[in-house]
Amino acid sequence: MPDSPSTSPDFSGPPFKGAPPARFEPLPADGVLPEGFFSTSNLPTYLHVGGRWLAPTRPRMDCVVVQRHDGLETIEPRRLRRGDLVAMGEAEDGSDGIVVYAKGFLGGGHGANEFRFMSTEVSRERPVNYEELAARVGEEKRRGGYLVWVVGPALVHSRARADFEWFIRQGYVQAVLAGNAVAVHDIEAAIFGTTLGMSSTGHPTEGGHGLHMRAINRIRAAGSIERAVESGLIRSGIMYALVTQGVPFVLAGSIRDDGPLPGVYSHTLEAQDAMREHTVKATGAIFVATALHAIAVGNMLPAFYLGESGAAPLMTICVDQTEFVVNKLKDRGTHQAYGVVTNAQDFMHVLRFYTERWEQGSP
Amino acid sequence: MPDSPSTSPDFSGPPFKGAPPARFEPLPADGVLPEGFFSTSNLPTYLHVGGRWLAPTRPRMDCVVVQRHDGLETIEPRRLRRGDLVAMGEAEDGSDGIVVYAKGFLGGGHGANEFRFMSTEVSRERPVNYEELAARVGEEKRRGGYLVWVVGPALVHSRARADFEWFIRQGYVQAVLAGNAVAVHDIEAAIFGTTLGMSSTGHPTEGGHGLHMRAINRIRAAGSIERAVESGLIRSGIMYALVTQGVPFVLAGSIRDDGPLPGVYSHTLEAQDAMREHTVKATGAIFVATALHAIAVGNMLPAFYLGESGAAPLMTICVDQTEFVVNKLKDRGTHQAYGVVTNAQDFMHVLRFYTERWEQGSP
Amino acid sequence: MPDSPSTSPDFSGPPFKGAPPARFEPLPADGVLPEGFFSTSNLPTYLHVGGRWLAPTRPRMDCVVVQRHDGLETIEPRRLRRGDLVAMGEAEDGSDGIVVYAKGFLGGGHGANEFRFMSTEVSRERPVNYEELAARVGEEKRRGGYLVWVVGPALVHSRARADFEWFIRQGYVQAVLAGNAVAVHDIEAAIFGTTLGMSSTGHPTEGGHGLHMRAINRIRAAGSIERAVESGLIRSGIMYALVTQGVPFVLAGSIRDDGPLPGVYSHTLEAQDAMREHTVKATGAIFVATALHAIAVGNMLPAFYLGESGAAPLMTICVDQTEFVVNKLKDRGTHQAYGVVTNAQDFMHVLRFYTERWEQGSP
Amino acid sequence: MPDSPSTSPDFSGPPFKGAPPARFEPLPADGVLPEGFFSTSNLPTYLHVGGRWLAPTRPRMDCVVVQRHDGLETIEPRRLRRGDLVAMGEAEDGSDGIVVYAKGFLGGGHGANEFRFMSTEVSRERPVNYEELAARVGEEKRRGGYLVWVVGPALVHSRARADFEWFIRQGYVQAVLAGNAVAVHDIEAAIFGTTLGMSSTGHPTEGGHGLHMRAINRIRAAGSIERAVESGLIRSGIMYALVTQGVPFVLAGSIRDDGPLPGVYSHTLEAQDAMREHTVKATGAIFVATALHAIAVGNMLPAFYLGESGAAPLMTICVDQTEFVVNKLKDRGTHQAYGVVTNAQDFMHVLRFYTERWEQGSP
Lengths: 363, 363, 363, 363
What we know:
The first copy, chain A, is an alpha/beta fold. Chain A contains eleven helices and 17 strands. In chain A, strands 12-9-8-13-16-17 form a six-stranded parallel beta sheet. Chain A has a three-stranded antiparallel beta sheet with strand order 3-2-7, with no helix packed on it. Chain A is globular and about 70 Å long. At the C-D interface, helix 5, helix 8 and helix 9 of C face helix 5, helix 8 and helix 9 of D.
């Protein structure tokens, strides 16, 4: 896992020096950008405006930079209206008044003559340094960071459920982004002791195929997940821990959803908006066993956060059973993702073990 | 690929004979089912009502059977209102007046003493009988079937795009269910010749990372995909073929979406409703390189369709790079899925080759 | 993990009763079988000889049953000579005097009407019951079983090395079957602290690509692994633990081998013979992160062992990163394999954790 | 697929200029190297000897450079005897009189500021340019290259068998490196029409599990594969084509082998020696659906061959169902491998289609 120091560019040298001012043009219609707009990446970006170099707030990729009276903001095109002013240009080297300052964020090129083994970045054959992972996670808690967990249902199927509860209760989780299925399986487990009709030891149960529908129905009858916790219908598990600990969560809907549960954002753009309120605060992110949500969050997660001494890399851990999801994430621009190729259940167990040890060892 | 004959049960024998009438109870509140409701599967199901055995219309799994004045219908719980009458019971063997008649739809158990190799159902090591696949696809066209294609963006990334166009033009496609990304990549290819900034030969292009955003913006400016085809902005590809051939498509939104394109159903429940209007007509389904959409459609696709001589297995082909998606689909109840473990590009190429040959050979 | 009781067939009923005597024919030439020979499986098998039903000793698949003056033995054809008598016939139901008694060894067929989720046998989404696994492994030790571990180099790359040492020292390992690479990486780690030039935290080291060759060279200079342990050249790791604990190991050669190390069986048939001396004693087997060795051992491992009360299923655990190896193993006849889909490093860590707990709890 | 031009280094500049002569030391014992030996890679390498820069013959990785009276040769340490002189040093930059000249052979590092999608090198989502592949393969034939095919049994299981025959007959195959199983399955198909008892359309056959043993037995009775072809026992397939076309093949043994067939090299070091006689001649290599043999050949295959104008990259295509094998190959030093992530059957079908088209188009 790379650990680059924070960086602040030197605006007195290249590529900043001598760059023209950034250009802005108005939207010709609601949600329609002027041709030639600047399309953002997730890397630190500076625009030359009024003789100064400004970094837009709320950075993310695949958006535009909008000029507001009080500064620059990164915004999804669909949210803009006719007349809004967006930055123009395709160049990222300052020649259009915009600099994407990737130094230290894209990993180094190899040296020219360096023959070596184990050169692929993500591999099941590369040992995972859990001590370092646990220390990083622990540091986030200690310094009051904002750790966003993005999790898939495999985390509930398997016995990682109790371990995730532990992380929530211990203060390692500032927000959870997930889908309807995570909550459905977790609540099926809380009410019936099964997930998709399968017992916690992996055996199918009689009549089990309808149990998730019965669980959903009880929550719909209760009115909300929160009320189901209050009423004692849900007495354990991830949702119970989130509600009782006051940790915010976003359940984003998908076309796969049964139900859905009350509280799920079935409108995907509303879901994106709700998720983004957490990614803009993130100082770290952990993705476990989810492709859809990992990539969705990857789309909106900056590769950095602004700390006291400038832009620092945003720790992004992606846990999946194969290399595929991490590589897909990297292929869609989340280059900073550090891949852990393992089973969700085992990851949570081992990370908890090392985090407990870190707690004992940390002053 | 199993090819069971159509089956109509013998209602004069077990488990039908002597079964009590099915029970129905009203919903206590909008979208809230009475406890003990009958949860549907995707298999042929019969209810004992008024002395007759009726099969609910619009079958799918994870729903309920609703009594309407003109018969029984399978409906998502969220669409029901207080007072609607739903079938009750958990038993599928007639003892609650409901029979799930799976005979011939779940594959046979192995015999007790049968040692053999290659016993797993889905494997990259099992040869794919493309001749048989092509004949099945051809037969669907010849007899006026309704073949639903569910496709992921890998089909556009790779060079399968032209092959899919061919199937659309030749009448092998009655509906396409996909996501925003399929259309975005296809339109990026139509306008700029790239997908995610990568050329059709797999090379990255300069400044390519913003091209999909520019493609989306042009369609938003045009107002709709259809108008972009009319205006000549889109002159080739999958969306072009669908629009010009009048083949219906549903683009279902997800939280991963950029844009989205006009016409995408960003509300997931509206998307589900739109998709289901095609799955209820389906006589066959082909899933290519998509996990999210395959499982979403699998959730709503019956394992059978009603032909002239009773319930016949609904051909469901699932193409993916690994066994995982097909097994996941089976694990979520789409037991009839026949897995083809290969690359989307190569699948489309080879299936087209064999389908062209079938056309020449078919009388 | 299935846990069938031991079974002894009832020879007074079908398919035994009334069966003709088994036929035997001589080999026409060294290593050449008479046409129509009986090809063995890994299941309990009985031959009707002299009015009694005899089970051949040293059972395994893909061999023949040879009549020796003192009974029946299962032997590889290549080891036979002209005139040796082998059992004839293809039927396994007694009609040729041979019964393959698979009852309880092949898993049950599903019932006909059983719709359910999670029906595939091996899945990353199925929770692993480590408590049960640890108890099984513990029971093997307690009752003096013979647990054979078959391991691949990923177990050394990752930090599972120390955990495997623990199992060896605690008496949970009766034999290790592996390849040259396992020993090479382990010894590179013992001497240089790297594997394939990568540090234990996953970072490449300067000049690392030659380190495995240097490690091999030092052992060749020492004369043997055992002498390198005695001389203090190797002071830690798997090979160190095996040598100092007196646990037997077979290092089987392959065409991938560098070196090889002294003691590696570079002749594959000699390696098979050495490995089989352990598989015939096995009461349990654990395969971790190896395709080649898992399938080789699967080929020669019976699905059962003979306990006090008859044939009992031989616990066969197969740990791999994806479902593929386990399914391949099953597809090549090792139907009894129980798949654990996870990372080798994490598996060893979690299994050790639960085994330590089992030790504390066991009387 | 990278296509770098041939390169010859400029010996008058750095890192060559001013380098000391290479040092050589004798082996202290048979097969035991002097400490500090130079360990080879698969890249172009030059040693400073007698005032000139010499490239050792028969280059491969994980070996040593030996001084013979007539020049330098790359040799496996196990083949050396006491007193043989080997090059010394760990530096590859000339400071020990040895230069590894990787320029153009390791791929470029990325630029520092280059944000883009699809940055992983091997991905199922990257389109395969079959036209270019076919043209490369065609060029090898046209200019009299030496194309080595390394194939696994999946190529026979699936229906690629006929396509591979076509490539053999058309002169696109100069040598085949494979294992016992490829020949066994191919011959089972030739004699019984099945592979591992499964029909060519993927269905299991009655009593099929012994058929591969019966096939092996018939060849053992015939004495050799060649005689089985002559006698008419084998009338089709890969082995038939190889024998009748006079294309050399090496069947390397492994501990997984049943039989083995006559002609298989059961001693792995003899197999390596036989295989290497082909890799030293190779101007191109195609690996299809094999991990063991791909990595074994990767170990001995140079990254280049010496053409008329210097060292040229040796086209190395690796076809497998997932990214794993290609990445493993790269992680073990075969950096030049170009990955095609697909099914063996479909690859062979599509490559043949494009190669036939190339033949028609080529002058």
